């Protein structure tokens, strides 16, 4: 009578093994089960008794360990071998396993201290299917470079090595060559340096709103004014080289935030392509990525204690396709992504006629249809506005 029973249970056992093997993606599931059953003589009551090296997930029914492991793999988007050595699950020889244990403790304490021990924060809350969580808000599907997430105050930045490669990856041009090619593609340094002003007119579209008339004027050195013609009046954004302000019909003048000064300086500089090399003490070629339909070399410009600047240059034309920059805040970095295209030649210098400026929650699209250079731009526009009227 017992014989057929045994047959069946062996069969189910085999089926379980096959299912387990499938779940663990060809991992030696058999060895896990063996570890369990070896000590199964008096049926283990806790994970500690059933497994060899449990320090955090202890005092739980043994059957709960593997589901926990499945949850971790799903949360981090990895396989078991991200933390484990084949056939020796108990060993702590991978640093990721040691980190994972600390993370479990962190998660427990976080929930204890902030959420009355309710399980509100899990591995997935932060990791979202990636082994390294994203700490800078994404713009569309654009994720900031990991190296940027190591951004720290000056003292720490000097002692912490960044995770970017020290030298140019094989097969890629040097940062200096990429920057030289960019200047040459635009028309050369001499032509760029001759531009003393630029006025572009066209349309701007905010998100899904209507196209509004816009005029952007630049004046060397480093001044820029954007005027959007709204039905109720003009909205202007001014940068005069040292400070900036925004005014819109019906609202008080607002000064440019200091966190945005660096970005404003970059945008306002007509000779920016020539000045790029001086911008950073450290340019690194990271890799080749897709930007829209183009292959682009990604360059990271960084300065100690400053958030980096990501520049994407077309591998074919050498032109700048995208810029990703970050402004500081006490809680994290705020990203701005600017895309450039539709380059046209004016006075021997190529100028992007189309720009898309995106932040995590906003996007504006600027298309010029007319552009002129070395024309008069009235200096009066760059004078600071009258002091704010007293607040009621
Ligand atoms: C992100 C790291 C990580 C991943 C991925 C991971 N584990 Fe683990 N695993 C751990 C940690 C940490 C422990 C120890 C837990 C403790 O100390 O409480 C552990 C313990 C184990 C143990 C107990 C070993 C022993 O005898 O002590 C087994 C078995 C195991 N994992 C299997 C798996 C399987 C199967 C997978 C894939 C589905 C997996 N793990 C994926 C981190 C990981
Ligand atoms: C509160 C947010 C948060 C939670 C919750 C969290 N992590 Fe993390 N984890 C991080 C951060 C941030 C890093 C990256 C640290 C770094 O880059 O040095 C990280 C890194 C890791 C790493 C190292 C990855 C690598 O590539 O070296 C592992 C492994 C890991 N976490 C596992 C886990 C597991 C397992 C859990 C759930 C038990 C968990 N984490 C929960 C924030 C979190």
Helices and strands in order, then pairings?
Blueprint: H1 2-23, H2 29-38, H3 47-50, H4 65-76, H5 95-114, H6 123-127, H7 146-149, H8 154-159, H9 175-186, H10 189-193, E1 197-206, E2 211-219, E3 223-230, E4 233-239, E5 244-248, E6 251-255, H11 261-268, H12 272-279, E7 282-291, E8 294-302, E9 309-314, E10 320-327, E11 334-346, E12 349-359, E13 362-373
Antiparallel strand pairs: 1-2, 1-13, 2-3, 3-4, 4-5, 5-6, 7-8, 8-9, 9-10, 10-11, 11-12, 12-13
Helix pairs in contact: 9-12
The protein binds heme C (HEC) (2 copies).
Number of helices: 12
CATH superfamily of the largest domain, please? Lipoprotein localisation LolA/LolB/LppX
Nearest-integer average pLDDT: 86
Which molecules other than protein and nucleic acid are bound? heme C
> How many discrete structural domains?
2
Strand order of the largest sheet: 6-5-4-3-2-1-13-12-11-10-9-8-7
CATH topology of the largest domain, which one?
outer membrane lipoprotein receptor (LolB), chain A
Main pleated-sheet profile: 13 strands, antiparallel
Task: Provide the β-strand percentage band.
Answer: 25-35%
SSE string: HHHHHHHHHHEEEEEEHHEEEEEEE
Global geometry: elongated
Based on secondary structure, the structural category is alpha+beta
Low confidence ranges: 1-31, 151-166
CATH class category name of the largest domain = Mainly Beta
Rg from Cα: 29 Å
Query: Which architecture of the largest domain does the CATH hierarchy give at level 2?
Result: Clam
Could you tell me how far the N terminus lies from the C terminus, measured between alpha carbons in angstroms?
Answer: 93 Å
Helix content: 25-40%
Count the beta strands. Answer: 13
